[in-house]
What we know:
Number of strands: 15
Helix content: 25-40%
CATH superfamily of the largest domain: von Willebrand factor, type A domain
Number of domains: 4
CATH class of the largest domain: Alpha Beta
Oligomer: single chain
CATH architecture of the largest domain: 3-Layer(aba) Sandwich
Shape: globular
Strand order of the largest sheet: 12-11-10-13-14-15
Number of helices: 19
Strand content: 5-15%
Amino acid sequence: MILSDGRRIVPSTDPRVGAPNIIPAHPEFRLIVLANRPGFPFLGNDLFSALGDLFSVHVIDNPSEQSELVLLSSYGPDVPRDTLLRLVRAFGQFRELSDKALLPYPYSTREAVHIVKHLQNYPNDSMSEAVSNVFDFDKYNSAAKETLLKILNEHGIPVNLSHTLLEKKDKPLQLTVQRDSGLDTSEPKHGKEDPNNDPHVGGNTWAGGTGGRDTAGLGGKGGPYRLDKGHTVHQISEAEKAAIPEHVKKAAREMGEKAFREKLKEIQMSQYDAKVYNEYSLPVQNQVQALRIILSSLQAKSQERVWSRNQTSGDLDDARLIEGITGERAIYKRRSDQDPELGTPQMKPKRLRLVVDVSGSMYRFNGYDARLDREMEAVIMVLEAFQDFDQRICLDIVGHSGDTPCIPFVPMNHLPRDNKQRLDVIKTMHAHSQFCVSGDYTVESIADSVDSLAGSSKDYDDSIVIVLSDANLERYGIHPRELAAAMDSDSGVRAYAVFIGSLGDQAKRLTEELPPGRGFVCMDLSEIPQILQQIFSTSLLK
Length: 542
């Protein structure tokens, strides 16, 4: 260790002991430092980066179930073992959820000890009273309270349960069967509406049929746009779809564009539908709260140019002239980039662009794995969570489809302020996915977004692009290398891909071929806050 006056502390076995300005440490000297981990919520010092080369660092993890059980037994020898075991398992689940950013605080053995000591000292008190002493503060956080109560009750720890569990209704799966119809297309049309909504396979009469031709439906050819009425989809081959005459394609495209314009007018003039909005909002309320916790603890990333002193080369440091005369070599200074200390507040906002996939495959395969519904829920989650964080994060949302690589949905500095505006955003996304032409602009959309943010990256603390995609790239011959190249096209912007849909193991294979830590597979929206936390943390360390 180099002291401020130039002297150096070395181990007693160092060969330089006895030389001028060398201070040997005592052979029995030991310094044990117990430190909180850095970052939210403990806000401890980042000792590893500052002093890691001077210490033998040991990370103290939570004890195992058996060890924690023995520890709690020592504090509550009269507390039934079954009660202790239920507490240990509940707290273990709390920590898992904290690691996934679904709870704001990593409940430790300390809280469990408080409960056990209460039960030991006041045996006539109920378990509910003992637990309340620890968790009363969390009653002001409705999302955390709901999660805590749910887990405590799962482990048989009696507490008052005054909340409603909301579960997303099960969505039916869809089987794709390829077949050749052997029939030609003639003229695109909407088709007749079946009042009974019976399934129709093949043919060119009914709207909402599958595997047919000319009419609006799924899995067919020559129709003006997609229309899902909840039936099992029969899919004709890609070769048969490619053989459609150009004049039929043109007529179908014109009819689809007209229907899309009419749909946009309908959305703009529609009244707010709370029931529809709640279908997408209520299932993600816990994730909204978790994401807001993450956003509230964001830290500065941008580096600062400073003078690094005690260097062996560079500009002569006037303050070290005397040391230079006496033979000291580390008397120079250099300009270098210094990372901010962990916990440093942001001076400039972060820049985030969310790129959503509104291609035809999102609508087409929504009945297969609910990928479009999941994406719209994710957008609602982001819009609700980012509310009131305008000064810390500048967010905009764009989309891509077979029509264009950049479709603006939410402009920067114009986040929707109420549920009606947020509902209009996801309705527009749904409509675009239904009426757009087939095709894929994923790579072009990523490259365009990275380039757009790169031009103003110096104005922001950090610039991040997050792409939501259904991983349906093989169909269009797009290699993962092209995706990776677009994501790495500018060093000042970091791009990440989150795959929320997949046919087979496409998403998994894509993630494995992208740069490490840049691709994620997310079939469960509860993982979105954890993924975003990892993205923000990874970007912070770069």
